[in-house]
Design goal:
The protein is mostly helical. The chain is 44% helix and 8% strand. It contains 3 helices and 2 strands. It has a two-stranded parallel ribbon. The longest helix has 16 residues.
Length: 105
């Protein structure tokens, strides 16, 4: 759990500094780094901290990682979005419905 907490602190730091970069820059995250394999509830709390640190209008892209984690990842993201994480973007740019993407090739 210490690794997940350390990773969360690093992501929060990145989230607070992303406002210095062009608006097209997003924060990408794999939830296994912030506790998905320990507990989905822990992971939701960690991701909530990260998204709260993002400047208005910025996005976080959550990777599905692999098939074994896809359902848990989707649950964490949709639960957090339903709880208001998508409302962090006052410009309406944040999409409350996650859209899985497939790697090229």
């Amino acid at each position: 759990m210490a690794d997940a907490e350390a990773a969360t602190r690093s992501y929060v730091d990145l989230a607070t500094r992303i406002g210095r970069l062009p608006a097209s820059v997003w924060l990408a995250i794999d939830l296994s780094h912030v506790g998905l394999d320990i507990s989905p509830a822990l992971c939701r709390r960690q991701l909530d901290q990260i998204t709260a640190a993002l400047p208005d209008g910025r996005r976080v892209q959550v990777g599905a990682e692999d098939a074994a984690r896809a359902d848990a990842t989707l649950d964490v993201v949709t639960t957090l979005a339903a709880g208001g994480a998508a409302d962090h973007d006052p410009a309406g740019q944040h999409d409350a419905q996650p859209r899985p993407t497939m790697p090229d090739g």
